[in-house]
Amino acid sequence: MKSFWEIRILLVETNESVIRLVEKAMSESRLKHFLRWVRTPQDLEFELQFNAPDLIISGRNMGLFSAMEVLRLNEQYGNKAPCIIITTDRSIELDTDLALRGVYEIFTQAEIKQMVKEIGFLKEQLQSQKITA
């Protein structure tokens, strides 16, 4: 049986305005999705352990923790979910570190609509991987 949503997305973010931007962009898309968000490392660990997402969207720096911690925890729990980072601005040093750590893509807040298009493309790849697995 096929589920109603085609991709399960975990949004890891503490900034309310970014959360609303992502929610709005995703709701305006035609992409069938399930979007869940968390604010703390403890909630992130719970989700990774019990509700493994297909995709993670994370802020780069969230006060209590960073995207590097999100990547570490994703790996620690054996998840293969790609991670997209949303940031206010570009930083060659920080973005390079994230890319070397395996981040799928980095978007600024102004590029949220492009991020949604990329998620649509990524969804197709993830579905084909599930079928062959």
| Strand/helix succession | EHEHEHEHEH
- How many strand segments? 5
The major beta sheet can be summarized as: 5 strands, parallel
Q: How far is it from the N-terminal to the C-terminal residue, by CA?
A: 17 Å
Assembly state: single chain
Task: Give the count of helical stretches.
Answer: 5
Low-confidence stretches: none
Q: Going across the biggest sheet, name each strand in turn.
A: 2-1-3-4-5
Shape: globular
**Rg calc:** 14 Å
Helix content class: 40-55%
- Broad structural category: alpha/beta
Portion in strands: 15-25%
- Overall residue-averaged pLDDT value: 90
What does this structure look like?
The chain is an alpha/beta fold and 133 residues long. The protein is built from 5 helices and 5 strands, in the order βαβαβαβαβα.
Record the SSE blueprint:
Elements (H helix, E strand, L loop, with lengths): L6 E6 L3 H13 L4 E6 L2 H10 L4 E5 L7 H10 L6 E5 L4 H10 L3 E4 L3 H21 L1
Parallel strand pairs: 1-2, 1-3, 3-4, 4-5
Task: Provide the descriptors you would attach to this structure in a database record.
globular, 5-stranded parallel beta sheet, single chain, 20% strand, 133 residues, 48% helix, 5 strands, alpha/beta
